[in-house]
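fwd from M.: "can u put these together and see what the complex looks like"

so here's what she sent:
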Amino acid sequence: MVNRHAVGAHYGLKDWLVQRATAVYMALFTLAFVVRLLCMPAFEPLIWQATWLELFASPFVRFFSFLFVLSLCYHAWIGVRDIWMDYVKPVGVRLALHLITLFLLIGYAGWAVHILWR
Amino acid sequence: MTEATVTKPRPRPKHLDVARIRLPLPGIVSILHRVSGAGLFLLLPFLLCLLDKSLSPTSFDDFATLVAHPLVKLLLLGLLWAYLHHFCAGIRFLLLDVNKGLDLPCARKSSYAVLAVSLALTAVAGVKLW
């Protein structure tokens, strides 16, 4: 009998946990945001715009929205990476897709910072 | 490997043939979770672009005309379904993670509930959006 030790990068459990932690945060944020949206006036561009801008002028909304975007990017990284790992077998193509995904998500996070703190 | 090249190709067994697999309800919810997640990822730049326009005083009019377009509304409705399905199925998976509803009848019922609730919420939001 061969005594084999499974030695990996040990990122499996951490990613599993992070995927769930970010999911829970995003779910709570979504619920709170929907409640807040329901308090907004019906979509009438002029009135709505003012309320919308005011909402995102709040430092708290910016802070928690930024956390939402970070959670989203980390969550999406794990999810999309799992998709590539399941369906894309050639190592080179897979590596390229991983990197493209990673760079896109980092870029989106930067874009979100720009949008939130303009 | 060498044996495989000698024997003539046989038809793939059913469980390896995507076209012949009939997924059970929980399987459908699971694959839709993946599909909705992938769709949301692919259209993330579009959503960020909308948020960007909506929060810029100078381009809010662009935002208003864009979301008034029927095709954009349809796309947003699709994304809304994707978000809601991902949300509901995600909660179901979190519950399964803590061993809630693992038995088969319960897993079937909760899958059905995920599909129904996400579609119903999409319909409600769709009516409000239009």
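replying to her w this: Chain B is about 75% helix and 0% strand.
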